[in-house]
């Protein structure tokens, strides 16, 4: 594989956005990373950082028709001292290759993807915002680019990384949300693509989300597709419950995403000697625990929110209030600790963060 | 909705391909149809036929990330007299709106989509090939085009129709295929997107297809995702079995595609007074019927192949041969009659075909 990253700097840098109006995922930085895959050219080749710009594709490009795509999401944080930190980026690229395998997309060397990412963030390091709660959202993704309408794995792909400065997820403080338990629609099932980060899982979830929002819920609580009894995820996050002093989260069963935040939270809880267990969790168990006053906390976990406390569960016509609709003690502690580690404010006993410095293996061209 | 179709003709027509080397889905005609959707511009607008060309999209375009896409597939056929016939195109656009509903994509007026299609085919009518078995494959599709990384229904879409002259599916005569019963991977499940024609269903199927091909099978026979007992589809086709004189096909259960060819075959069989029933069909029943010598025919149905006879079923370590590996009498009669109706050679008692004539409501510009 060609691992020499060519860098072409933009001549016209964009104006940086007002830090108070960042929002999520609408503003992009000055550069992007691209690498192409062609079987007949020996695989992945021509890695390059170029000015952020539109891409041009034939209408018969497979990605428009058969959804053979994967993506990842992670963030870069600016510390008080101005250092740029990444949080466990190697986990994202490890998962990307698992997604690639499920989607029949050729794998990419993980350490090279990490180098490409660090080089890109370094080029656009002025774009990492520094206000409380802000960060640079990083979106690596792969699309299939063969121009062919047959249903088969594409022979051509494009791997890209784009960067978007994002605002604080909790601008007005952490307010627990109401989520609706979904009984009709299914996100994924064992043997499907639920463990992969691929577009089809997200498009399949939109309809249920629309229904939930109409019922005043901000997210959907997904049940398993087979028995419609066991908890899977909440929206596009993993989910945890504190039941009678113990933290439980659905075990990885082939249809649940192996979340980086989920994994980090399990490690943190173990580090604190708080009992945490990965196992099947049924809706029936939650209802019983709530009835017995033992459903003490509930929260979603993911890159965007880090920890998203659940204040109410809507189950059929019943509303199950959790912890008086307030964020729980452990949820708060997990949020503070994880965001603290991510931004360099809290000691990192796990070696989770890695700093973005200067890149060594690149040649640079100004045009 | 703006229903005036602007036509911009190409100045440089491509050379028509050699009819013997058409293949499938790699060659495209001179023009394409485009229409865009923007909430703030009042919905679907600006329908136009323009020279076939690449499209330019931002890397943050939702279609690359969250798979909110739908598509259709149908064919135009040239009769001996040079007329151009479409086969039940209204069924495709009816289904497209059902797919749109599941994927949270705004619906499109069905009669307008049909008019757009007929206008486009008329503009490129010289591209409809006339050799035996050839046709013009038509691919209407919609992609989400909002430039936003949030997971929510897009506010912008593009509807396109592209055309591809395709060769005969059965160049060397109809040879029954071996298909493998899939036990690990799942195509879709009730509550998922299996009844919609959306990219995610097809990307999810690639892995199983790879495994099946390695076992010498040309397609996968999908079982239901819940009990892994009941037959769903074969590859990306519907499936029929003749058991003890009766034709059975899996009933539409929410995870099976409502195929136009499937529907036409059921109507044809009823017209011929051949018993046909839509119901659950278990793998166990097929094995028993085969054991008793009563599994008489099996065939997939879809737009590409029309009828694809199954000669062997690979089930665990067993090979179940069907009808001595030869095409069955009813499979052959269905193939001959359907392709006969489609190409104007056989009387059409159902009013299934409609002719492409001159379009009336368009204004034409040469550039």
TrEMBL record, chains A, B:
One of its GO terms (molecular function) is L-isoleucine-2-oxoglutarate transaminase activity. It catalyses: L-isoleucine + 2-oxoglutarate = (S)-3-methyl-2-oxopentanoate + L-glutamate; L-valine + 2-oxoglutarate = 3-methyl-2-oxobutanoate + L-glutamate; L-leucine + 2-oxoglutarate = 4-methyl-2-oxopentanoate + L-glutamate. It comes from the Bacteria. PROSITE patterns: AA_TRANSFER_CLASS_4 (PS00770). Pfam families: Aminotran_4. The modification N6-(pyridoxal phosphate)lysine is found at residue 197. This is Branched-chain-amino-acid aminotransferase.
């Amino acid at each position: 594989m060609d691992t020499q990253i060519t860098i072409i700097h933009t001549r016209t840098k964009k104006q940086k956005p007002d830090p108070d109006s960042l929002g999520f995922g609408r503003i992009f930085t000055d550069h992007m990373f691209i690498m192409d895959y062609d079987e007949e050219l020996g695989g992945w080749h021509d890695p390059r950082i170029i000015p952020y710009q539109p891409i041009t594709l034939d209408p018969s490009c497979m990605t428009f028709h058969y959804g053979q795509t994967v993506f990842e999401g992670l963030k870069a944080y600016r510390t008080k001292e101005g250092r740029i930190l990444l949080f466990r980026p190697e986990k994202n690229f490890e998962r990307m290759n698992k997604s690639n395998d499920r989607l029949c997309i050729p794998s990419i060397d993980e350490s090279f993807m990490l180098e490409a990412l660090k080089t890109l963030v370094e080029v656009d390091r002025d774009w990492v915002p520094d206000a409380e709660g802000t960060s640079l959202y990083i979106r690596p993704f792969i699309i299939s680019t063969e121009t062919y309408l047959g249903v088969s794995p594409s022979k051509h792909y494009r791997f890209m990384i784009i960067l978007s400065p994002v605002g604080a997820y909790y601008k007005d403080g952490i307010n627990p949300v109401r989520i609706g338990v979904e009984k009709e629609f299914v996100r994924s099932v064992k043997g499907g693509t639920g463990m992969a980060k691929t577009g089809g899982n997200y498009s399949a979830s939109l309809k249920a989300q629309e229904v939930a929002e109409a019922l005043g819920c901000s997210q959907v609580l997904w049940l398993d597709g087979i028995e419609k009894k066991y908890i899977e995820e909440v929206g596009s996050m993993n989910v945890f419950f504190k039941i009678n002093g113990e933290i439980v989260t659905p075990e990885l069963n082939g249809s649940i995403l192996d979340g980086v935040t989920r994994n980090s939270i399990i490690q943190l809880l173990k580090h604190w000697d708080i009992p945490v267990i990965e196992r099947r969790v049924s809706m029936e168990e939650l209802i019983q625990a709530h009835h017995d006053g033992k459903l003490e906390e509930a929260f979603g976990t993911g890159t965007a929110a880090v920890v998203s406390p659940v204040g109410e569960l809507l189950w059929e016509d019943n509303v199950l209030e959790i912890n008086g609709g307030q964020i729980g003690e452990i949820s708060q502690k997990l949020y503070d600790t994880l965001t603290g580690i991510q931004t360099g404010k809290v000691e990192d006993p796990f070696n989770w963060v890695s700093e973005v410095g200067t890149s060594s293996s690149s040649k640079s061209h100004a045009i």
